[in-house]
Design goal:
With 236 residues, the chain is of the alpha/beta class. The protein is built from 8 helices and 8 strands, in the order H-H-E-H-E-H-E-H-E-H-E-H-H-E-E-E. The protein has a single domain, classed as Rossmann fold (3-Layer(aba) Sandwich), CATH 3.40.50.
């Protein structure tokens, strides 16, 4: 059975045409992309052109395109929203960027691509799937021994409920109402429990937060709300 929520799929499919509108529902993803990109690049080998990279839950290609522009030459983006993949393909074509996009789940992709990728990104996706554990296990299967994966999600606590849902969705309107479900947020300890269970070891973590005075996002030590985790697949 595919690890996908019908409601989540319909939600993102309905607004797929707006992926590259930086004033739309996807504004926040555009705003946080530079710090995500720089954090990822700071943890992977410098021989970017030789790396095989997979972006899971790529959406319209915001992160994928920035990785290619940074020097990645072999990148695949996968997503289960057909409309998003169509937008991603067209935008890459317009931008003269070579990216392989597919409509497929990570679990299905892992069946024929076991141990293939050097780097995998899975950003802002874990909180939208029925089984985060299944997704993390697929990431582990897809990675080469020694390969690195990045996850980005939202912590589950009262602070994240207040700021990531009440303030971000209902007060400031930074993201559409109903974008997130608090019970589906994940604690860092939960991600690492799933990760260690399939041979992934912790490398690093970082939070990031919105600065109202500058209108920008910055890295921070606190993992209370938005955070990223980097893991490495154990060597054979």
């Amino acid at each position: 059975m595919t690890n996908v929520s019908k409601n989540e799929l319909e939600k993102f499919s309905s607004i797929a045409s707006k992926w590259w509108d930086k004033t739309s529902e996807f504004k926040t993803l555009h705003d946080i992309n530079p710090i995500r990109l720089n954090w990822i690049l700071s943890h992977i080998p410098s021989n970017l052109s030789e790396l095989k990279v997979l972006d899971i839950g790529c959406g319209g290609g915001i992160l994928a395109e920035s990785l290619v522009k940074a020097g990645i030459e072999n990148l695949t983006g996968i997503d289960l929203a057909k409309e998003s993949i169509t937008v991603a393909k067209l935008h890459a074509l317009d931008s003269d960027l070579k990216i392989n996009y597919e409509v497929i789940s990570a679990e299905e992709h892992a069946v024929t691509n076991s141990g293939y990728y050097d780097v995998i990104t899975c950003m802002e996706l874990l909180e939208h799937v029925p089984s985060p554990q299944s997704l993390i296990e697929a990431v582990a299967k897809l990675l080469k021994p020694g390969g690195i994966a990045f996850f980005s999600t939202i912590n589950r606590n009262l602070k994240s409920f207040a700021l990531a849902i009440v303030v971000a969705e209902y007060v400031l309107g930074m993201v559409p109402k109903g974008t997130h479900t608090h019970s589906k947020f994940l604690k860092p300890s939960e991600i690492m429990r799933f990760a260690r269970g399939c041979g992934l070891e912790f490398i690093d973590s970082s939070g990031f937060e919105y600065k109202p005075l500058t209108g920008e996002y910055e890295l921070c030590r606190s993992l209370d709300i938005n955070y990223m985790v980097a893991v490495r697949k154990n060597e054979l």
